[in-house]
Design brief:
This protein is of the alpha/beta class. The protein has a single domain (about 25-140), classed as Transcription Regulator spoIIAA (2-Layer Sandwich), CATH 3.30.750. It has helices at about 15, 50-55, 75-90, 105-110, 125-140; strands spanning about 25-30, 35-45, 65-75, 95, 120. A hairpin with a 2-residue loop joins strand 1 (about 25-30) and strand 2.
Length: about 140
């Protein structure tokens, strides 16, 4: 009979600080039927938050934008600050997708971001809300 052993490895903090994947962060812009979606992955922190700020700064005041945080593993207060800055600039044009569980959702709950931002549990739900807002704006104008 062949015996297999399961091995696990632990990474110490010192070893982890030398790894390149310590704070992976990715930001990209995609089009969803005419609506811009800013998709974030990895860890949004002090180092990567300026990238979000720059990306959000490229939109005009009041423009409809969805920020998808569903693939984000971690976000600290600097990321929350950038979302609040974007919200102040875009007004009701900002919709945020954030999973119902995980570290990012816990931050949203602790600092009550859901009381200030338009938060949805998925990108699809955030897009539906943004499209509804677009219809409402057109109805007011027309």
């Amino acid at each position: 009979m062949m015996r297999t052993e399961k091995s696990t490895s632990m990474v110490t903090l010192d070893e982890r600080s030398n790894r390149s994947d310590l704070s992976f962060f990715s930001i990209r812009r995609v089009d969803a039927g005419g609506l811009p979606v800013v998709v974030l992955e990895g860890e949004l922190d002090l180092v990567s938050a300026p990238e979000l700020g720059a990306a959000m700064g490229s939109f005009r005041a009041g423009e409809l934008v969805v920020v998808d945080l569903c693939e984000l593993e971690f976000m600290d207060s600097t990321g929350a600050h950038e979302l609040l800055r974007a919200s102040a600039r875009l007004g009701d044009g900002l919709s945020v997708a954030c999973r119902r569980d995980g570290a990012v959702r816990r931050l949203f709950e602790v600092v009550a971001l859901e009381d200030v931002l338009d938060v949805h549990p998925s990108r699809a739900a955030a897009l539906r809300a943004a499209r509804e807002r677009c219809r409402e704006r057109r109805a007011r104008q027309g």
